[in-house]
């Protein structure tokens, strides 16, 4: 089993600690949190071992899970990589693209594995339809959340929209050609609501909206391609695949038939795949263990995390 340590024992850090302890792929060694008094409370409440320094933690582990605020990701990750330890880092990978690029080079230099915590890649609804998404030409994504002070230290693009940016980049096999966007700061010092239009070289267009001042929660993406419409509800973990095919000469009484202006008839049918329930955070951590032990490529690489950040920064720069 891989010996794992965690940096940061806040809201999300506590979830990672619990899952690493439950996992049969890892041996949770302990954690480090810069707030020593808070760390003592966590250690006393849950029985985790608290380390006094990051250096002491690094001496005892094979892999470190970084769940600290984004502003600390770069320095934390750099220290971990230089210690020769494998790195799992929450999204966004770093605060700047330049920092992300430096981490990519360091990971190569020190021959360590790295994965970024873009958890929606492991959402069971998205996993079940990902292979159906091919040559999609229009994408619409909405990620709306009720206001929560946690996370408002960064623009909503880095807080929420980056989830959809990464998911979209994983299915559109083309380079980003142009980005346009607008954002508004309502409560925070940084934009709380944003809309972005991403145009790809192959002609695909993605329209993304993110808000952290909504009256309701929503996390939906819709993918449109020739003869198919695919909907993913990341919140309810449900999906829908609607396809079209040439209509039969003798349609059944309950067949749904559309006819265009040229007289071409198409039959609409549902081809919804089965959604297998999972714990997405546990899945991403355990697939990283697979990559380390089998010397394979992680599902969400540091390079992909850096590209999601680059596109997010292009959007932010449009404000």
From TrEMBL:
InterPro entries: Gfo/Idh/MocA-like_OxRdtase_N (IPR000683), Gfo/Idh/MocA_Oxidoreductases (IPR051450), GFO_IDH_MocA-like_dom (IPR055170), NAD(P)-bd_dom_sf (IPR036291). It comes from the Bacteria. Residues 155-216 form the GFO/IDH/MocA-like oxidoreductase domain. Residues 3-118 form the Gfo/Idh/MocA-like oxidoreductase N-terminal domain. GO terms for molecular function: nucleotide binding. It holds the Pfam family GFO_IDH_MocA. PANTHER family: BILIVERDIN REDUCTASE A. This is Oxidoreductase, Gfo/Idh/MocA family protein. It comes from Croceibacter atlanticus (strain ATCC BAA-628 / JCM 21780 / CIP 108009 / IAM 15332 / KCTC 12090 / HTCC2559).
């Amino acid at each position: 089993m891989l010996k794992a340590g965690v940096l940061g024992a806040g809201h999300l850090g506590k979830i990672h600690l619990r899952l690493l302890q439950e996992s049969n792929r890892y041996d949770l060694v302990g954690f480090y949190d810069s707030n020593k008094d808070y760390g003592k409370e966590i250690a006393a409440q849950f029985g985790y071992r608290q380390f006094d320094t990051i250096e002491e933690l690094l001496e005892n582990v094979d892999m470190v899970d970084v769940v600290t605020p984004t502003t600390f990701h770069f320095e934390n990750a750099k220290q971990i990589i230089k210690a020769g330890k494998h790195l799992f880092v929450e999204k966004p990978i770093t605060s700047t693209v330049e920092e992300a690029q430096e981490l990519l080079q360091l990971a190569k230099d020190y021959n360590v594995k790295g994965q970024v915590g873009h958890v929606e890649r492991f959402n069971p609804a998205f996993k079940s339809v990902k292979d159906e998404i091919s040559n999609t030409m229009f994408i619409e994504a909405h990620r709306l959340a009720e206001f929560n002070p946690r996370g408002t230290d960064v623009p909503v693009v880095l807080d929420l929209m980056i989830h959809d940016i990464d998911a979209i980049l994983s299915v559109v096999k083309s380079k980003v050609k142009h980005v346009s966007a607008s954002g508004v700061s309502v409560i925070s010092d940084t934009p709380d609501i944003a809309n972005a239009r991403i145009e790809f070289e192959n002609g695909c267009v993605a329209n993304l909206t993110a808000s952290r001042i909504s009256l309701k929660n929503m996390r939906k993406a819709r993918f449109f391609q020739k003869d198919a419409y695919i909907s993913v509800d990341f919140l309810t973990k449900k999906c829908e695949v609607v396809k079209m095919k040439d209509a039969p000469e003798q349609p059944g009484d309950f067949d749904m038939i559309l006819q265009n202006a040229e007289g071409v008839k198409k039959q609409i049918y549902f081809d919804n795949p089965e959604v297998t329930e999972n714990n997405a955070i546990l899945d991403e951590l355990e697939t990283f263990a697979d990559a380390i032990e089998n010397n394979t490529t992680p599902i969400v690489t540091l390079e992909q995390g850096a590209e999601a950040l680059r596109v997010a920064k292009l959007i932010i720069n449009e404000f």
